[in-house]
Amino acid sequence: MIEEKQEFSEKQRHILEIAERLFATNGYEGTSVRDIAHEAGVNIAMISYYFGSKEKLLQSVFEMRVQFIQVQLESMLSNEQLSPLEKVYQFLDNFVERMMNQQQFHKIMVREQIAQKYEPITKLILDAKKRNQELVKKLITDGQKKGVFKKNVDLSLVLITVIGTANQMISTQHIYREINNLEHLSDEDFQKLIRKRLSVHLKTLFKAILTYEQ
Amino acid sequence: MIEEKQEFSEKQRHILEIAERLFATNGYEGTSVRDIAHEAGVNIAMISYYFGSKEKLLQSVFEMRVQFIQVQLESMLSNEQLSPLEKVYQFLDNFVERMMNQQQFHKIMVREQIAQKYEPITKLILDAKKRNQELVKKLITDGQKKGVFKKNVDLSLVLITVIGTANQMISTQHIYREINNLEHLSDEDFQKLIRKRLSVHLKTLFKAILTYEQ
DNA sequence: ATAACTTAATTAAACGTTTGTTTAGTTTTA
DNA sequence: TAAAACTAAACAAACGTTTAATTAAGTTAT
């Protein structure tokens, strides 16, 4: 029987999820420890008790969420059955799903990568991005060797578009909803819709940038 | 002699620019009125005296910057010399230049469109986006009528990519710089470089999404 | 099995700072 | 000499964190 490592207790995870939501909507400085404690239904002192400080609480939110890609993608990469383009598509699907499932967290990410105020978090973000880029780079160079992808692609710039598009969609989905008259949809259906559209859109983009075919 | 409407005095504009920079880097809640006053070299009370409150100060920053597109683009649109694609290119150049010239302000925008905390500002952003989209829509449908652009383009999604890419570049330019080993460049040269690359990149994207040609 | 003891969880209250804003007074400008 | 610009000081409220005390849970000894 394998004992799973429980980094945080159930109660701690509850606090972390509340904190994540509040940090996402109000920002780190815009959220008070009292707000978090109140919404989580715990005493204010518990947050220092469990996490040490407000800043370490934010760090803990990051730790909770940065299980990131790593394992999932490694196996995909080594699958020799798939064509380079198929691999890229699968990566994009995976990416969109991850982003949409963790919207609150990615809102925090957007803020923090602007602010760069808390060193350990800045470092976490940078490392994750580098790792991400290395993985995609393998995908791309693989496709280039096989002659399916163009050479001279600014990979960083392509990733900025992919991540930027997802971030922008997450940040301004209410506007997208209003402008396109999608208010009649349930929240759930709307989420499904933009997830699907985002996925298709990013694939189209990637194909257009990377391949010769039309 | 035409008297230009001076919305803000020179001293006020100085405060607004300091506030803009601090709001951009530390966020609205992360910036204290004392910080702003100190950096601007004025007494704290002057901020209430001039702008009424901290929140109205933020609003004033928006007012100062929302001279936006409007006039510039209208004339471009009506220029019958240009092909639809050339018009789109010109729009993109204009867009990138505006974004890069007002990076601080756009960092605030990114935060505020996530937060949606201050009603008047949320409304300002929404209106600007709608106006923006209407203008581009004219450009696109014009090109569609002439048979140069594809039909069935999700314009909102395309704009999300354009704006999202620019926002992401502005937010994570330090990472782009490090990953691509561009630290030897002067700040000025680096800014020029990413402005150019962003411009080219967005044009490529637009062309790939909108046109049939390769 | 229960009493004795230890550690962990939880609480209300208080701590010293910092927050945005206002006041009452002074200096500068027209 | 009236209005505008500016200042230092004070305001209450909110902030993150700590304290000291209490309750709950877990362990050991008998």
Task: Note down, in words, how this protein is organized.
Two copies of one chain form a homodimer. Helices cover 74% and strands 0% of the residues of chain A. The model of chain A is unreliable at 1-5 (pLDDT under 50). Chain A is globular and about 60 Å long. Chain A has 214 residues and is mainly alpha-helical. In chain A, helix 9 runs antiparallel to helix 11 (187-210). Chain A has helices at 10-26, 33-40, 45-51, 54-65, 71-78, 84-101, 103-115, 119-145, 155-171, 173-179, 187-210. The interface between A and B is large, with 49 and 49 residues. Chain A binds a DNA duplex (30 and 30 nucleotides) through helix 3.
Measured by DSSP, the beta-strand proportion of chain A falls in: under 5%
* Individual helix count of chain A: 11
The residue fraction in helices of chain A comes out at: over 70%
SS class of chain A:
mainly alpha
Series of H and E elements of chain A = HHHHHHHHHHH
* Subunit arrangement of the protein: homodimer
Instruction: Compute the number of strand runs of chain A.
Output: 0
* Largest interchain contact: A-B, 49 and 49 residues
The major beta sheet of chain A can be summarized as: none
Overall body shape of chain A? globular
**Rg of chain A, Å, rounded:** 20 Å
Give unreliable regions of chain A as ranges.
Answer: 1-5
Topology readout:
The structure is a homodimer.
Chain A: H1 10-26, H2 33-40, H3 45-51, H4 54-65, H5 71-78, H6 84-101, H7 103-115, H8 119-145, H9 155-171, H10 173-179, H11 187-210
Helix pairs in contact in A: 1-2, 1-4, 1-7, 6-8, 6-11, 9-11
The structure holds a DNA duplex (30 and 30 nucleotides).
